[in-house]
UniProtKB/TrEMBL annotation:
<dbReference type="GO" id="GO:0006405">
    <property type="term" value="P:RNA export from nucleus"/>
</dbReference>
<dbReference type="GO" id="GO:0006611">
    <property type="term" value="P:protein export from nucleus"/>
</dbReference>
<dbReference type="InterPro" id="IPR016024">
    <property type="entry name" value="ARM-type_fold"/>
</dbReference>
<dbReference type="GO" id="GO:0003723">
    <property type="term" value="F:RNA binding"/>
</dbReference>
<dbReference type="GO" id="GO:0005634">
    <property type="term" value="C:nucleus"/>
</dbReference>
<dbReference type="InterPro" id="IPR045065">
    <property type="entry name" value="XPO1/5"/>
</dbReference>
<dbReference type="Pfam" id="PF08389">
    <property type="entry name" value="Xpo1"/>
</dbReference>
<dbReference type="InterPro" id="IPR011989">
    <property type="entry name" value="ARM-like"/>
</dbReference>
<dbReference type="GO" id="GO:0042565">
    <property type="term" value="C:RNA nuclear export complex"/>
</dbReference>
<dbReference type="InterPro" id="IPR013598">
    <property type="entry name" value="Exportin-1/Importin-b-like"/>
</dbReference>
<dbReference type="GO" id="GO:0005737">
    <property type="term" value="C:cytoplasm"/>
</dbReference>
<dbReference type="GO" id="GO:0005049">
    <property type="term" value="F:nuclear export signal receptor activity"/>
</dbReference>
<feature type="domain" description="Exportin-1/Importin-beta-like">
    <location>
        <begin position="100"/>
        <end position="169"/>
    </location>
</feature>
<protein>
    <submittedName>
        <fullName>Karyopherin</fullName>
    </submittedName>
</protein>
Length: 395
């Protein structure tokens, strides 16, 4: 590694962010930074600049992380263990007052590495590592949530990283084992998870195989249940209305849960009691955003495919006949109407959004009931014996 190159880029970054820098100086400084970005040793330079112990300014460390990110995206190789360990070491060494943009960039980089290298024979302890981060501090918990949320977005929401598409089968296998309760995994996949023929080392070319679900000791409950319980804990806290920390944590955990709601098996939704827990969040005072996210999450569940079977029936019952859940939904809807809305909501636009979402959720459930009843009179009647409860909610 060239020490002179390090010094040049540090000086260049001072010029890039300096208030007295001329246009020509800034142009030359940016060219110096770009030259290092395209260097074959950019990854090594990036790790050096980003290392907290070296004492570089936050702007320099952030640039180092940009070099790491660029190298992962454009010059990835399979020798990922050392890189993964370096990034995790940086994350665990962060101080409580670390710049938010440093945390965000480290989170994005770790998610990129996960997409490319996990699960594998060299990486079987991701949940343990993220659980350590999750338990370390409030900031660590937010980072762990962000890692899972980013991974879920790459897998099930956006199409930003082509590697996530290429490795979707093994990644989904890993997510099944990490997020779902162990009892659900054993019940749903007793012989293993079926992988597509392009699943790399997990499959033989041209064939579909059943691979054992990747399970970690100590993660028997699964992350979805852990998040659902944490959301309930935050929503039930007496200090919630007075704490911006509680609000930020609740928003983060519901946002993370929501990313996986369109994918998670119905049986896991039932086992983790996601529906009644989200319904309870609708009544939280002090965070219009958290209540809106909870309403949108419930709508996502209500729009899930109306397939036949007891699993779907159970979720319908949770949404439509669980006394506490239905009462919470009805009460939340009532708070969006005059005159209650003035006292219950800080933002009238958020209240209106929640009202519309709750109404749409009810409409989806009633429609599902009628569709299911037409397909299977006996099963449908067990799912929603009294759909008028939902009709009353709508009116």
């Amino acid at each position: 590694m060239d020490g002179a190159a390090i010094q040049r880029v540090v000086e260049a970054l001072d010029l890039v962010y300096g208030s007295d820098t001329s246009v020509e100086q800034r142009r030359q400084a940016e060219a110096t930074c770009e030259q290092l970005r395209n260097d074959a040793e950019a990854l090594a330079y990036g790790l050096y600049l980003a290392e907290p112990a070296r004492g570089f300014k936050p702007a320099v460390r952030h640039f180092g992380l940009q070099l790491v990110e660029h190298a992962i995206r454009h010059r990835w190789n399979n020798n990922s263990t050392a890189l993964r360990d370096s990034v995790l070491a940086m994350i665990f060494s962060l101080k409580a007052d670390e710049q938010a943009y440093i945390r965000e960039k480290l989170t994005a980089i770790l998610a990129m590495i996960i997409v490319r290298a996990w699960p594998s024979a060299d990486w079987t302890d991701l949940s343990e590592q993220l659980m350590r981060l999750y338990s370390q501090s409030a900031e660590g918990r937010e980072m762990a949530l962000s890692v899972w949320r980013t991974l879920g977005e790459e897998m099930f929401v956006y199409d930003r990283d082509p590697v996530a598409t290429i490795r979707k089968s093994p990644l989904t296998n890993g997510i099944v084992g990490a997020l779902l309760p162990r009892s659900v995994v054993v019940e749903l996949y007793p012989t293993g998870y079926r992988l597509a023929s392009d699943a790399g080392a997990f499959a033989q070319q041209g064939k579909k195989v059943v691979a054992p679900v990747v399970l970690e000791p100590g993660n028997e409950d699964g992350w979805m249940l852990r998040w659902a319980q944490y959301a309930s804990e935050l929503a039930g806290g007496a200090a919630f209305a007075r704490s911006s920390w509680h609000e930020a944590q609740l928003v983060a955990v519901i946002s993370t849960i929501s990313v996986f709601l369109g994918w998670i098996p119905i049986r896991a939704l039932v086992a983790t009691q996601i529906v009644p827990r989200l319904a309870a969040v609708l009544l939280v005072r002090g965070s219009d955003q958290a209540r809106r996210l909870a309403a949108e999450a419930l709508e996502t569940v209500a729009k899930r495919s109306a397939a036949s079977g007891e699993d779907r029936d159970t979720v319908l019952r949770q949404l439509a006949q669980d006394t506490d859940a239905l009462s919470a939904i009805a009460q939340a809807y009532a708070t969006t109407l005059p005159p209650a809305v003035d006292d219950a909501w800080e933002d009238a636009a958020e209240a209106l959004a929640v009202a519309r979402t709750i109404a749409q959720t009810g409409a989806n459930l009633v429609t599902t009931h009628w569709a299911r009843k037409k397909a299977d009179e006996t099963t449908a009647s067990r799912a929603l014996d009294r759909p008028q409860q939902l009709v009353e909610l709508l009116v």
